[in-house]
Amino acid sequence: MNRATRNTLWGCLFVLALAGSWSCSARAQQERPFQFVTLDCLFRGALITTMEKGKLTTTVPNDTLSITLSNFNYEKNTAMMIGNAGSDEVSFIPSRKKAVLVQFSATGNGFMTSISEPVGGKAIAFHSRHSWLFGEPLVSEYQADCKVRK
Question: What is the dihedral sign for C-alpha 54, 64, 83, 30?
Fold first, then answer.
């Protein structure tokens, strides 16, 4: 094999390797839609269920809840949730086109947030709180429009 042919083959291999690397990188970015993203979410439309006089009662208060979601780590399966009561590292469960965040308070109350894949700078989310206060249930559900922070 002469030198020109060998150089051409090496050049072709280099281009194929570069194309494969770019393709893998682009595919990884598509498979990790929350990586390098911070979402500011304003939750509205709460449904709150409590126990009153021995019966479950659901109300629709007119309050809002602001939560920021960031630092989505695909290797550790963690993310950062920042809300009105401070910030906390939470479990991050990515899946196709969405993610779920799970959090437990020091008292054992559970919280779950489900987020759609950010598209066009926007996402939707649902936040659920399952709490017990003095032995009584306090359950709330919120829905949100989220914006990707620039």
Answer: positive
